[in-house]
From TrEMBL, chain A:
It comes from freshwater metagenome. Belongs to the PdxS/SNZ family. It catalyses: aldehydo-D-ribose 5-phosphate + D-glyceraldehyde 3-phosphate + L-glutamine = pyridoxal 5'-phosphate + L-glutamate + phosphate + 3 H2O + H(+). This is pyridoxal 5'-phosphate synthase (glutamine hydrolyzing). Residues 9-213 form the PdxS/SNZ N-terminal domain. It is an enzyme of class 4 (lyase).
Automatic annotation (TrEMBL), chain B:
It comes from freshwater metagenome. This is glutaminase. Keywords: Glutamine amidotransferase, Hydrolase, Lyase, Pyridoxal phosphate. InterPro entries: Class_I_gatase-like, PdxT/SNO, PdxT/SNO_CS. One of its GO terms (cellular component) is cytosol. One of its GO terms (molecular function) is lyase activity.
Length: 295, 198
């Protein structure tokens, strides 16, 4: 009875178990407990939430292993952590700590402006961001077992997440409508491997789970992204930069499950106090836009 | 027979496909009214803490617990096994389960995601063929009550158990194309249990 770890099915399957759920950014064990109590399906351990990375500037890196271990000890749900784009040593460190998923994330400062991590070399699964279908398929080709559409992290402005979900799903619909002999050119245009392009065209969906992230700050935002076809949502700064994190976290979980029931979303939206202040993406100078990182 | 899949969170879609492959037309269950309309239920893989909390918030917890206690056939995979267990270890403080199965389950017993694995194991349904079992942050059973039958083991740990109208596996048959376990649930667990009630 040979037991095999790190297979595609085990890595992608882990993401299937998170579907319909909310993954929350946390910076310490106390926040992780609040997230778990609110019904989060997983937490993302990081040193600073995107809103603070944005405000404080400087180079953003992998979190302190001590901090990650404290969070692992505090909760029973999966713990994810972020590595810089292309920083495979940070990823090796995170794997050795036993994190359940690694986010190769544009929110941190990239370590490599040409290459992403070769994710096939790891037992731990990876989630990567994407703004369009070509980017998503390139990440899957490198071994990503889960994709999240990128939004503009740390802004509380959902418009970028919306744009990228529309982009990815629109391109999938377009692929499904093509003749088989047109898929070769489609692959060239998407800058993605033909085999993956063909698979997406046949199935009408990505071969891995598609979550959404970036700028989601309210229960209605979460429900909006679910109705756009997301399998689940990441909420970063939106919860712990708001007036009442515990209540807002629970409200977002409820709205994600009942995304198609406006009455539930209305109830979840009542009396939540201050949402995070927010920045309009349009006001951000182009070099400060995180979603554009990734190649 | 109307079969539902609890759809608060988790890999609902995969269970629905597996059930369709077994010839039933499943529905999703998120509300008490939808629960009342089904004869049998599948509890999917997912996060047991999240599913239990959502069940409580949306008024499904007590009705579901009571349906299970009154003989509704239920199959739970992974998180579903945890939710069916009378007793759980390594759980979140105050974590509740629907219960019904007289077993003690240890959460994440096989370890973290890097320890998740797949393997060919025996499943005691009379067939000698092995089944490909996918274990993801999987629990195992540490204690079984006297009326509980162990159908599969990994090393010495029970990973598939049955007691009357309840079936639970710590692995995810819904992630493979082999639908033996779902068929076993429909034909050998749910149908006989429902006939007895009628």
């Amino acid at each position: 009875m040979a037991e095999v770890t790190g297979t595609g099915r085990v890595k992608r399957g882990m993401a299937e178990m998170l579907k319909g759920g909310v993954i929350m950014d946390v910076v310490n064990a106390e926040q992780a407990k609040i997230a778990e109590d609110a019904g989060a399906v997983a937490v993302m351990a990081l040193e600073r939430v995107p809103a603070d990375i944005r405000a404080q500037g400087g180079v953003a890196r992998m979190s302190d292993p001590d901090m990650i271990e404290k969070i692992q000890a505090a909760v029973s749900i999966p713990v994810m952590a972020k590595a810089r784009i292309g920083h495979f040593v940070e990823a090796q460190v995170l794997q050795s700590l036993g994190v359940d998923y690694i986010d190769e994330s544009e929110v941190l400062t990239p370590a490599d402006y040409k290459n992403h991590i070769d994710k096939w070399n790891f037992t731990v699964p990876f989630v990567c961001g994407a703004t369009n279908l070509g980017e998503a398929l390139r990440r899957i080709n490198e071994g990503a077992a889960m994709i999240r559409s990128k939004g503009e992290a740390g802004t509380g402005d959902v418009s970028n997440a919306m744009q990228h979900m529309r982009e990815i799903n629109g391109e999938i619909r377009r692929l499904s409508s093509l003749r088989e002999d047109e898929l070769y050119v489609a692959a060239k245009e998407l800058q993605a491997p033909y085999e993956l392009v063909k698979e997406v065209a046949e199935k009408g969906k990505l071969p891995v789970v598609l979550f959404t992230a970036g700028g989601i700050a309210t229960p209605a935002d979460a429900a909006l992204m679910m109705s756009m076809g997301a399998d689940g949502v990441f909420i970063g700064s939106g919860i712990f930069k708001s007036g009442n994190p515990a209540q807002r976290a629970a409200a977002c979980v409820r709205a994600t499950t009942f995304w198609d029931d406006p009455k539930v979303i209305a109830d979840a939206s009542r009396g939540l106090g201050e949402a995070m202040v927010g920045i309009n993406v349009a006001d951000l100078p182009a070099p400060h836009r995180l979603a554009e990182r990734g190649w | 027979m109307k079969v539902g899949v609890l759809a608060l969170q988790g890999d609902v879609r995969e269970h629905i496909s597996a059930l369709i492959a077994c010839g039933v037309t499943p529905t999703t269950v998120r509300r008490a009214s939808e629960l009342a309309a089904v004869d049998a239920l599948v509890l999917p893989g997912g996060e047991s803490t999240t599913i239990a909390q959502l069940a409580e918030i949306f008024g499904l917890f007590e009705p579901l617990k009571s349906r299970i206690a009154h003989g509704m056939p239920v199959y739970g995979s992974c998180a579903g096994m945890i939710l069916l267990a009378d007793e759980i270890l390594d759980a979140k403080e105050d974590q509740k389960t629907f219960g019904g199965l007289d077993i003690t389950v240890r959460r994440n017993a096989f370890g973290r995601q890097v320890d998740s694995f797949e393997s060919d194991i025996e499943f005691d349904d009379g067939s000698k063929e092995l089944i490909r079992a996918v274990f993801i942050r999987a629990p195992w059973v540490e204690r079984v009550g006297k009326d509980v039958e162990v159908l599969s083991r990994v090393d010495t740990h029970p990973v598939a158990v049955r007691s009357g109208h309840l079936l639970a596996t710590s692995f995810h048959p819904e992630l493979t194309a082999d639908h033996r376990i779902h068929r076993y649930f429909i034909d050998e667990v749910a149908k006989p249990a429902l006939q007895k009630v009628q």
